[in-house]
Amino acid sequence: MAADQRAEDINKVIVGLTQAGKSQAQIDSALKAQFGLDSVGSAQAGGVSPMSSSGNISLPTPSIYRDACASSYYASAKWDFTSMSALSSDAPVGCSVVMQNVACTMGNEDGFGFSFNRNVSGVGASSLATWGITSFYPTVYNRADIWVENADGTFYSGQDKVHCKNSSTNGGAACVTGYDDYSFYHGSLLYSFTNPGCGGLQAWSRYAHTWSSASITGVSLSYPAGLSISLSSTSNAWQKGSSGSNQVTIC
Question: CA angle, 208 as apex, 121 and 47 as ends, to 5°?
Fold first, then answer.
């Protein structure tokens, strides 16, 4: 299910305001003004603990919005890495300035998605944006593809890359001055649906990061299990989950 124009337009506003350092309340206000979206539900305590965590990524609580005019809903989730130096330790050997457009992949693919605590229906479009911390990796919407998307949520995966700092000394087989950008440093995911069903509805996001030879070997997205990610290794990979979104009670 590729992103339609409305889903991508909404996500572009979320991305732009996030990059401008706006608060979640300011983002909610802008979505209301520009698209008629109301942030729905009440905040919930607690959440999902990471199976294997990293302190170098932030997973803000997902949000759920209602578009009263279009009779539809949107779920939004984001991530932000917090340390370029920590990511540099995962970087591949042999990534130099002369190779950076070819060989600077960070192991295998990373993945991000979210699941609901129950099924929804009328799944529409989704949109995932990723960007780095410098102009080398600008905001784009095609660095990752849908692995699975259904009435229980969505999950994308894509090849992450690092950028070696430009230096005349970096012409050989290794990046000797370090790395200054990462293509998946930030991300924003938007998912639309028309019918949330009856009862309380919440969303939880999860990010999986791999490097070296580790990889994502499987993804399961189903009710009531939620989003489950299988990794080939726990020594060169980790995954982390967010706390639960605002809870929407319908019917």
Answer: 60
DSSP 9: H
What does 223-241 look like in DSSP terms, one character per residue? TTTEEEEEES-SSSEEEEE
Other residues' Cβ atoms within 10 Å of the Cβ of residue 69: 9
Model pLDDT for residues 144-179, shown as the tens digit of each residue: 999 999 999 999 999 999 887 765 554 555 676 678
Query: How many C-beta atoms surround the C-beta of residue 159 within 10 A?
Result: 15
Residues 6+ apart with CB under 8 A from 20: none
pLDDT tens by residue, 38-83: 888 755 443 333 333 467 999 999 999 998 887 889 999 999 999 8
Answer yes or no: are the C-beta atoms of 149 and 130 closer than 8 Å. Answer: no
Continuous segment of H or E residues that includes residue 217:
strand 216-222
Query: Do the Cβ atoms of 173 and 94 come closer than 8 Å?
Result: yes
Cβ distance 193 to 120 under 8 Å?
yes
pTM: 0.87
Is the Cβ–Cβ distance between 110 and 54 less than 8 Å? no
CB 23 within 8 Å of CB 39 = no
Q: Which amino acid is at 239?
A: Q
Instruction: For residue 71, give the DSSP letter.
Output: T
CA pair distance 174, 75, nearest whole angstrom: 42
Indicate the DSSP class of residue 181.
E
